[in-house]
Every structure is written in structure tokens, then in C-alpha cells.
Amino acid sequence: MISQPTQATASDGTASRAVGLPPLLGQALGPLVPGAPIPPGPRMNPWDRAGARPVTTLPDGVKALLEGLWLSPGYHRGPDGKTTRIRQRPVPSAGGAYPVHTHLVISSLGAAGLDPGLYAYDHEHDTLLRRHDERPAGRRPGAPESADSWMVFTVQPGRSFGRYRHRAWPLWIADAAYALTAAEFLLDDPAETLIGPAAGLRDLLAFAPGADTGWWLSRGLVPEMPLVAIRLPRRIRVNRPRSTALARRRSPSLATFATGEPGAASSRTLHLAQRSGQAWLLGADRIEAWTVSPQDPPRQIARAVWNAHRCAARLVYDAAESDRWRCRPVSGFAATGQSWVIHALALLDAGDEESAP
Questions:
Q1: What is the Cα–Cα distance from 16 to 178, expressed in whole angstroms?
Q2: Going from the N-terminus, what domains does the chain have, and what CATH number goes with each?
Q3: Region annotation Disordered: residue ranges (predicted)?
Q4: Cα separation, 212 vs 210, whole angstroms
Q5: Whole-angstrom Cα distance, residue 20 to residue 295?
Q6: One pLDDT digit (tens) per residue for the chain, 357 residues
Q7: Read out DSSP for 203-241?
Q8: Which of 221, 288, 274 is nearest to 4 (CA)?
Q9: Phi and psi for 257 in degrees, rounded to 5?
Q10: Model-level pTM?
């Protein structure tokens, strides 16, 4: 049985003035439906154009971790049964946008069997590339030597923005949080994390800000935004049973929920279905949801968004390991004056094996 994760709230127990989000960010919480999709940009940045070269032989631990997160056994099928261009992956992504990119920062002392340097992983071609850079990896100008090495998750903002427009920014956090939690799940060893966005994460990767489009385009790249990092152990050991569980994890299709019994839905489920405008939720056997007040200060809302998605991700991965529940993440809730449902999970006891992103 899966235990109920801690409810994500934005309150830290201190008195603070309710200010809410800036208007531009606050649009993500409103009822306005995103417009027609626009081109989202490349699935992966072509780091080879910027001088990066493939690593011919990957250390076993690095290979197991990267494949445990992103190895694709094939492509999803659409509602019509036809194969789409969206790859199946262990880590889910809102709408199959997959904006998350993976980088390794290996310190001057080396780690995980890799030489010091900056590395970018191409999820599409299962290739790790070593970048060509002007300074030692993981060091800000004038910073001392460090023994720490990191896995950094960035997002290519256009991947989500192309489909979700003003609702994209919570989904950038959602996808990064699901990736981070998957890395923690696979490593099965508590490790330090750095939550961004922040200049410190850009420094780790020797990135310019995303707004400096000239820096990116001159290298044949599109901007990436570093959101979170996890410190790597000197020797990476991946939990194989958990990796297997993630590899077989699939979100149940909407058609699977349609076979449920809507008449048996609780009042809470009815409320969430109405708030999201997604009637298929009525077929869920169980729903978990995380909320925050939209009137809380921005920093508290940001913490709540990270916490909600990390709690939800752990629930998804624990469910895959136990084989007790099948979970489909849900976003896109409009806020009321007092509450915003940040994220929810729709769970099924059993169902059709057809999957969705």
C-alpha cells in the first residue's frame, strides 16, 4: 500500500504578506486555454556543432544511470492506435514534450569513471558527448578546486512552451522534478541537490543566461535553462530492480480510465474533474492532489510547486516498484481565489496495458 505523501503547501509558518505571483507568471493559474501549438524547437541540442565529441566507452555506472532515466524501448501510440513520434521513456513528461536535457559536471578530481570535464547526454541517440570549454568543469572564475561532481537537469523552454504557452513554467519544474526524483530513486542513496533556476547552476555548466541568445545561437544551439542538480557519488551504483521497474512504467491511457465507473466517483474526484476540465478523471480508482494558495508569496509558491511534483514523482516510482498502482500525472488546473491545485495523480488498480506519455 502506498502511503500518502506530505501535502505540499506554501506556508513555512512565518507571517508574510500575501502577494501572489507577478501577472505574467500568474497567467499559468488562470482559465485561459493555450492557443494552437507552435514549433517547439529541437528535441535535443546538437552539441556536436559546438565542438562536443562522443564518449566511445561509457563506465558501467554512468551508462546504467543514463539508460535508467531515458532509454527508449519504442514509441507511444495515439488514440487511433497508430505509432506517434513520441518516445516511451522511464521518466514521464507533460504532453510528451520532454524539455529536460541531462548534463554531467565531472570535477577536476574525476568521478564515476569519467575524466574531468563537461558532458551533455543526447537522449535521442543514447550518446554522451564531452563538451569543449575554456575553463575547468564545475569551477566559477576564481573558485577553489572541488571534489564534487554533478548531474544537472536543464530544460529547453520551447519544448513545453510550444504546446502550453502561458502554462509552460510549472511544467518545466514538473518535468525537472520528475527527472531529479527518478535519479534519487535509481541511486537509492541520499545526495545533495541544488534547486534553481540560479546563476550557480549556470556557472556549473559554463552556460550564458537563456536571454543571451547570441551566445547560444553562435554555437548552433538553442537556450537551455538549468533547473536542478544532484551530486554524484564517486562510484555510481544503480539499483537494478528499481531500474527495471522504471523501464516498464507506463502512464495508463485515457481510454483505460474511460472503462471505470464514473458513478462511483467521490465528491472530491468530481470537484477535481470539474476544476481540470478532464472528465476522464472520473474513472480513476484513486486521486492524489497537491495544493497551494495563489495569494502566497512567490518564493513559497515556487517551493510548493517543486515539493508537489517531487512528492508525486516518488509516488509514481514507488507504485511502479510495488506494481500496486498505475499512475497518470495530471496538470492544467485553474486556480480559485483561495486554492490552486498544482498537480494531481490519477491512479488505477489495474487496466489496459496501452500507455501514454
A1: 30
A2: 47-246 (3.40.109), 250-356 (no CATH)
A3: 1-21
A4: 5
A5: 4
A6: 333 333 333 333 333 334 578 998 999 998 888 888 888 988 999 999 999 999 999 999 999 999 999 987 777 777 667 777 777 889 999 888 899 999 999 987 667 789 899 999 999 999 999 998 655 444 444 333 566 899 999 999 999 988 888 899 999 999 999 999 999 999 977 789 999 888 889 999 999 999 999 999 999 999 999 999 999 988 899 999 999 999 999 888 888 887 655 555 688 888 888 888 888 899 899 999 999 999 999 999 999 999 999 999 999 999 999 999 999 999 989 898 789 999 999 999 855 444 445
A7: HHHTPPPTT-HHHHHTTT----EEEEEEEEPSS----HH
A8: 288
A9: -70, -30
A10: 0.88
Provide CB contacts within 8 A for 292, sequence distance 6+. Answer: 8, 9, 10, 300, 301, 304, 305, 308, 339, 340, 342
Distance CA 189, CA 205 (A): 24
Q: What is the 3-state secondary structure (H, E, C) of 290-327?
A: EEECCCCCHHHHHHHHHHHHHHHHHHHHHHHHHCCCEE
